[in-house]
C-alpha cells in the first residue's frame, strides 16, 4: 500500500514527502558557494528539506546541533553541506594549509560508504579543494595509513577505526573543526561508548558537533552530554495528526503459530503472492538464513542472503541491486540479535551500553563482525514489507527492523511470527532458542509501541488453517530435504563464491562495469535434492482467491524424473551397449549386388 500523499522529487533516485520540504527557502538563499550549488543542482535537489533548512543556518552560526528527524528526511545532507562550505571558506583564506578538518562517525561500514558517495557527489566541482575518504572499508591498515597521510579534508569511519589510527599517530586531530555522530541512537548499541569517550578527549573544546538521530533516546542524551555545549535541538513535527516515530506509517501484524508452521505460512505467503513488493525477511541466526533460502528454493522462490559472514563489497552490491529492484526478497540477520539471550534481557532492563563488551559474540561464542548491521543505518529503498520470521529479542531491535519500511512518506507493513510457549521445542529441526521467549518479548514490544511510538497497535493476523493445511505435505517434503549438512555446504559454497567475487574480481569489475550487472546474489545453491514438482502449485490446492493471485501460467509438470541416479543410469548404458547395432545404410559405402 503506497500513500497517496503528494510528494516532491528532490534527488535522482528518491522521493521525499512534500511535507518534509521547506517551500520558503532555496539553496541559493543559504549563501552557499557556487560550486557547491552547482553540485546540488546536478543531484536534482530542488529545495532544502526541513531539517536542512533549520540545520544549515545554525551550523553557519557555529552552534552545536542535535537533530532528530525521521528516516528519509535528508539528515546526511544537512551536515555534509555546511561542512563542505566551511572547508571551502577555510581553504580560500589559507590555500596552502593541508589538514583534516572533519570527522564523520558512523556505526556501520555500509553507512560509511553511503556517506562517502554523497560527499563525492557534492564536491564534484571542487574536488581539488575538498576530498573525503572512508577508512571503514575492508582494506589493509597500510592502505588506510596511505589515505590518511594525504590529509583528506573529511574522514569517515566507525569509532573503532578512527580511534585506532589516532592512537597510532597516523591521524592527527589537532585541526579538526567539525565532528558528526550519525545514527546517534544506534552507535552506542554497537559497543562504541569507550571509543567515543577516547575520541572526545583528544578533540579541541571548540570543535563543532552534529548529532543526527531518528529517535531521542537515553543513549542520544548521553552523547549530548559527552560532546555538546548547549546544542540547538531540532525536532521535526511533520504533521500534528501524524506521529513522527519510527513505524508510525507502518501497519503492524503478528501471527501466533508453532515453529514448523512458520515455514508452512512463509511458503503460502510467498508462493501465492500475498505480499506484494520488496521484502526483507529477518531471522536470528546465520544458519537460519540458509535453511529458509534452501526451503524457498524448493518451491522456485528466489531470494538472496545478507549477513555478517559476507565480505563488505558483497553486502554493498546486494544493497545496490536490491535498491535497483533486481531482487524482491532479502533474507537477513541483524547483528544486534546474534548475542546471547541473557545479554538481550539485561539490555532490555536498562543495562549501560558500556557493559556490552561481548555484544559481537553469538551464543556459541564465535566472534561476529560488530560493525555489521542491517536493521539500521542502511539505505534500503521502497521496502514494502518487513517480515520478522524470527521475532527479535528486544523491543528496540524490533523498532529498528520495521524502520526499514514506511519511509519517505510511503506506507509499509510489518509481519511478525510469534511462537506460542506451549509449542516451543516440539519440532526440534525447526526450533530456535530465542523463540522460547516470543510471547514475553511481543508483550514488551506492544507496550513500547503504544507508549513511545504514537499508540501504534500490532494487530493479530489470522490465517484460515483449513485451506493452508492443504499445502502441509508439500512443505514437509521440502523441509525434510534440508539437513544440517546441506546448510553447512550451502553456507560454505556461497561464502566461497562471494569472497571470490569480492576480492579477485574487484579490479576486473572496476574496468568492466557492465559485467558487474550480471553478478547476482539470488542464484540457487542446489545443496539439497532438487524436487522440480514442488515449484508448481496444482490447481486443486489453490483456494479461489489464490487462483486469481497467480497470474502466471504454471506450465507442464512431467511425470518422469528429469534426473536419474547413477545406478539407473549405468543400467541404461549397459542395456544400450548389449543391443546389436544395425548399420545405417545411408552411412555405409558397401553396395549389395541385386540378384
TrEMBL record:
One GO-annotated biological process of the protein: rRNA processing
PROSITE patterns assigned: HELICASE_ATP_BIND_1, HELICASE_CTER, Q_MOTIF
Quote the subcellular location field of this record: Nucleus
Compositional bias (Basic and acidic residues): 358-368
Q: Is the keyword Hydrolase in the record?
A: yes
Region described as Disordered: spans on this chain: 343-368, 573-595
Q: Boundaries of each DEAD-box RNA helicase Q domain copy?
A: 25-53
Q: What is its EC number?
A: 3.6.4.13
Q: Which residues form a coiled coil?
A: none
Instruction: State the UniProt keywords alphabetically.
Output: ATP-binding, Helicase, Hydrolase, Nucleotide-binding, Nucleus, Ribosome biogenesis, RNA-binding
Q: Which SUPFAM superfamilies match?
A: P-loop containing nucleoside triphosphate hydrolases (SSF52540)
**What are the annotated GO cellular component locations?**
cytosol; nucleus
Ranges of residues in domain Helicase C-terminal: 249-466
- Per the record, the domain of life is Eukaryota
Q: Which GO terms describe its molecular function?
A: ATP binding; hydrolase activity; RNA binding; RNA helicase activity
Domain Helicase ATP-binding intervals: 56-234
Upper lineage = Eukaryota, Fungi, Dikarya, Ascomycota, Saccharomycotina
The protein's job, in short, is: ATP-binding RNA helicase involved in the biogenesis of 60S ribosomal subunits and is required for the normal formation of 25S and 5.8S rRNAs.
Q: Tell me its family.
A: Belongs to the DEAD box helicase family. DDX56/DBP9 subfamily.
The species is Lipomyces tetrasporus
Q: What is this protein called?
A: ATP-dependent RNA helicase DBP9
Amino acid at each position: 500500500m503506497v500513500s497517496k500523499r503528494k510528494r516532491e522529487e528532490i534527488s535522482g533516485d528518491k522521493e521525499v514527502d512534500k511535507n518534509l520540504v521547506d517551500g520558503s527557502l532555496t539553496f541559493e538563499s543559504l549563501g552557499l558557494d557556487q560550486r557547491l550549488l552547482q553540485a546540488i543542482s546536478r543531484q536534482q535537489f530542488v529545495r532544502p528539506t526541513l531539517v536542512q533548512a533549520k540545520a544549515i543556518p545554525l551550523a553557519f552560526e557555529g552552534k552545536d546541533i542535535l537533530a532528530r528527524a525521521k528516516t528519509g528526511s535528508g539528515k546526511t545532507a544537512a551536515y555534509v553541506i555546511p561542512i563542505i562550505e566551511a572547508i571551502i571558506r577555510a581553504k580560500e583564506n589559507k590555500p596552502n594549509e593541508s589538514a583534516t578538518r572533519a570527522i564523520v562517525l558512523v556505526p556501520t561500514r555500509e553507512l560509511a560508504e553511503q556517506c562517502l558517495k554523497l560527499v563525492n557527489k557534492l564536491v564534484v566541482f571542487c574536488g581539488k579543494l575538498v576530498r573525503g575518504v572512508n577508512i571503514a572499508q575492508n582494506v589493509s591498515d597500510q592502505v588506510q595509513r596511505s589515505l590518511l597521510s594525504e590529509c583528506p579534508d573529511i574522514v569517515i569511519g566507525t569509532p573503532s577505526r578512527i580511534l585506532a589510527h589516532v592512537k597510532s599517530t597516523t591521524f592527527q586531530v589537532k585541526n579538526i573543526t567539525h565532528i558528526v555522530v550519525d545514527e546517534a541512537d544506534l552507535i552506542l548499541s554497537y559497543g562504541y561508548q569507550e571509543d567515543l569517550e577516547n575520541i572526545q578527549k583528544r578533540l579541541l573544546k571548540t570543535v563543532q558537533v552534529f548529532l543526527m538521530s531518528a529517535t531521542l533516546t537515553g543513549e542520544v542524551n548521553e552523547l549530548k552530554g559527552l560532546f555538546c555545549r548547549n546544542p540547538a535541538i531540532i525536532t521535526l513535527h511533520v504533521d500534528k495528526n501524524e506521529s513522527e516515530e519510527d513505524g508510525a506509517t507502518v501497519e503492524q501484524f503478528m501471527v501466533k503459530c508453532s515453529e514448523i508452521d512458520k515455514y508452512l505460512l512463509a511458503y503460502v505467503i510467498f508462493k501465492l503472492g500475498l505480499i506484494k513488493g520488496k521484502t526483507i525477511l529477518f531471522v536470528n541466526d546465520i544458519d537460519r538464513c540458509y535453511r529458509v533460502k534452501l526451503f524457498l528454493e524448493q518451491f522456485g522462490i528466489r531470494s538472496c542472503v545478507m549477513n555478517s559472514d559476507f565480505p563488505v563489497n558483497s553486502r554493498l552490491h546486494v544493497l545496490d541491486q536490491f535498491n535497483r529492484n533486481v531482487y524482491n526478497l532479502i533474507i537477513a540477520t541483524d547483528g544486534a540479535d546474534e548475542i546471547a539471550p541473557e545479554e538481550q534481557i539485561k539490555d532490555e532492563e536498562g543495562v549501560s551500553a558500556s557493559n556490552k563488551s561481548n555484544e559481537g559474540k553469538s551464543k556459541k561464542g564465535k566472534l561476529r563482525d560488530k560493525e555489521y548491521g542491517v536493521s539500521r543505518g542502511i539505505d534500503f529503498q521502497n521496502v514494502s514489507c518487513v517480515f520478522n520470521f524470527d521475532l527479535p529479542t528486544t523491543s528496540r531491535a524490533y523498532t529498528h527492523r520495521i524502520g526499514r519500511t514506511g519511509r519517505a512518506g510511503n506506507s509499509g507493513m510489518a509481519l511478525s511470527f510469534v511462537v506460542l510457549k506451549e509449542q516451543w521445542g516440539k519440532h526440534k529441526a525447526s526450533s530456535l532458542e530465542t523463540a522460547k521467549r516470543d510471547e514475553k518479548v511481543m508483550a514488551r514490544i506492544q507496550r513500547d509501541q503504544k507508549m513511545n511510538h504514537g499508540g501504534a497497535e500490532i494487530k493479530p493476523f489470522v490465517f484460515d488453517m483449513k485451506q493452508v493445511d492443504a499445502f502441509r505435505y508439500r512443505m514437509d517434503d521440502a523441509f525434510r530435504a534440508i539437513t544440517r549438512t546441506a546448510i553447512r555446504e550451502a553456507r560454505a559454497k556461497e561464502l566461497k563464491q562471494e569472497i571470490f567475487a569480492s576480492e579477485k574480481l574487484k579490479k576486473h569489475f572496476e574496468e568492466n562495469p557492465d559485467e558487474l550487472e550480471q553478478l547476482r546474489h539470488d542464484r540457487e545453491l542446489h545443496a539439497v535434492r532438487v524436487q522440480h514438482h514442488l515449484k508448481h502449485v496444482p490447481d486443486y490446492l489453490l483456494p479461489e482467491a489464490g487462483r486469481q493471485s497467480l497470474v502466471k501460467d504454471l506450465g507442464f509438470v512431467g511425470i518422469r524424473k528429469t534426473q536419474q541416479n547413477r545406478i539407473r543410469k549405468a543400467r541404461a548404458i549397459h542395456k544400450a551397449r548389449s543391443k546389436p547395432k544395425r548399420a545405417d545404410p545411408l552411412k555405409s559405402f558397401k553396395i549389395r549386388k541385386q540378384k
